[in-house]
Amino acid sequence: MLQKLLTGQLDLDSLLTDLIKEFIQKLLKAELIEFLNYEKYDPKSKNSGNSRNGYYTRNLKTKYGNI
What GO MF terms are annotated (predicted)? Predict the structure, then answer.
């Protein structure tokens, strides 16, 4: 990614957008693990009353565009 930025194949705004997107996705996954109190595919999730029921995409408007 840094090489693309330095060679001009990627602009700074695109780089920042990608980094923000990755950070938010990791943050939301960590929040879900903390809330449910188990990792994905953990056997203790069976019959726990809480489960992962899928996901859907969301859009976040930033000064770098939609993420």
Answer: DNA binding; transposase activity
